[in-house]
From TrEMBL, chain A:
Residues 230-297 form the Signal transduction histidine kinase subgroup 3 dimerisation and phosphoacceptor domain. It catalyses: ATP + protein L-histidine = ADP + protein N-phospho-L-histidine. This is histidine kinase. The keyword Membrane applies. Its EC number is 2.7.13.3. Keywords: ATP-binding, Kinase, Membrane, Nucleotide-binding, Phosphoprotein, Transferase, Transmembrane, Transmembrane helix, Two-component regulatory system. One of its GO terms (molecular function) is ATP binding. Residues 334-418 form the Histidine kinase/HSP90-like ATPase domain. The lineage of its organism: Bacteria, Bacillati, Actinomycetota, Actinomycetes, Kitasatosporales. The chain crosses the membrane at residues 12-33, 39-58, 155-181. It holds the Pfam family Sensor. One of its GO terms (cellular component) is membrane. PANTHER family: NITRATE/NITRITE SENSOR PROTEIN NARX-RELATED, NITRATE_NITRITE SENSOR PROTEIN NARQ.
Amino acid sequence: MDSSTKRPGPLVSAGRGLMLSVVSLAGSITLFVLSVLSLVFIVLGFGVFTTPAVLTMVRAHANQRRLLAARWSGVRIPVPYRPFPADARTGVTGRVERCSLMLKDPATWRDLQWLLVDMTAGFITALLSCALLLYAVEGFVLAAGLWRVFTDDRYWYAFVPVDSQATGLAAAGLGAVLFGLGVRYNADLLRGHFLLAKALLAPGTDQEMALRIERLTESRHDAVDTSAAELRRIERDLHDGAQARLVAVGMDLGTVEALIEKDPAKAKALIGKARQSSAEALTELRDLVRGIHPPVLAERGLGDAVKALALRLPVEIEVQVELTGRAPAPVESAAYFAVSEALTNVVKHAGADRAWIDVSHTGGMLRIAVTDNGGGGAVIGTGSGLSGLERRLGTFDGVLAVSSPAGGPTMVTMEIPCELS
Amino acid sequence: MRVVLAEDLFLLRDGLVRMLEAYDFEILAAVESGPELTRALAELEPDVAVVDVRLPPSHTDEGLQCALAARRARPGLPVLVLSQHVEQLYARELLADGNGGIGYLLKDRVFDADQFIDAVRRVAAGGTAMDPQVISQLLSRRARDKPIGGLTPREREVMELVAQGRSNAAIAAQLVVTERAVAKHTSNIFAKLDLPVSDDDNRRVLAVLAYLDHGR
């Protein structure tokens, strides 16, 4: 049970049980009947239009139960419904599309199964939590004098035939036991009701798999896109930079070869120029390498690479690293560039003059927090550097959290699951 | 002057050997891996070691670690570290023991043979040779901050050259002032950076270290 949910009192549970039993019986039966009718009407045509509406009501009904489960018993039931496409069409075709999407969603069919279970077993568990107390009260009332009514015609209180004061007291005794049971267990009965709902309403393994595959496909696309873009950038940088300079060096040296006897002074000047070009080529290659895989990362690992990065930036940055080993190379690289991007944001947008980086590894998670004292107001959104960062981490099942109230400070937290070696 | 050289790329090693020999250095050993370097430094007692940061078999900062370990065993052993990239982080580690005899240069600097040989000699003599890029990284950071230790712009200029390992005479020539003026600037710098009185070479190393640390 969720530790934040207090165990409710027996009377509260009984009241909730009574309410739930009414909702279970009336709501679930009505919705089930409507659903079945609407599905049948699809054959006649107009069911296509009523079905989405009815199913939407079913979903609202189920979501209401999910909400109560979490609020009353701390039972969390995930919502498994597939999202509708953002570019859904309107009009008749849109309606038909919507209907077929809903019918293809396995969660819809599980909802209908749940309606059946909810109007029977669900109804009984909910009612029991209330009925135990009410029935016990009836026992007490019988003992108190109501037994007199039944002296001629015996009344069965559970398995006790009530027709005298003695049997009336026996009924009261049984009532006390039931009362005790109700006080002790009706919160658990209610919880049982919600667990039953969870068994049917929570996404099944198949659905979880489907959702996971969806996420993986998306992050793989992102990863492929990103690396393709990176390769294009590298190609362009090499083509316009180092490659061009080396061509110039070769040309200069060719000219030197021709000039060296005729005009030694000019040849010497050209050699100087060639050396200059080769130095520039080296500088460009060095910058390029830093962008592909920073040398310090290869030599020292994430901690020192982040420290070296921090030393290069025009903002005062404190770096705290607590790592007992090295993360796998791809994770290190992703984490490094994520930090680099976060720091670029700090320098460019935050207007901060101090930043703090905290790198640690606990519970199978590499955790990095980048905090700055700038203006705040950063959001993960389309086109922002932060969403790029999120995608970068997504490839590794990593997550990004941003806390950035207006006025600052901004804290960007990244977590990537990995083991250290 | 006797040199141990460690560089894993054959072309560069060969080129360095030829260049150093051309300037009358004696090459005791030209090795290509970390373990070989450690052995050579322990057995051959060179006057100076020229070491590539990244060496096999691990291809991490093995050269740097070997050099630092050798300096712990033999404090003040002159080491000139070469790399494809320079990092303040490494510079600080190299200078941390305050013993001098440290050089840290980009490999590109071998293009200018005279300057490179000058740096090797300076390091062998117990001085320092920091790559101008280490210093310029620092300056780009400093531009926004308040000047460290209240150095005047001129003093910072002098400090930058001191950090590179230039002598007073060389600094005087570059800034077109007298050597006495430079000496006055350096003693002001030492005072402002709170450096203890000791021999001039050692103080220059400490000044560089303090300068790098102020970059934090």
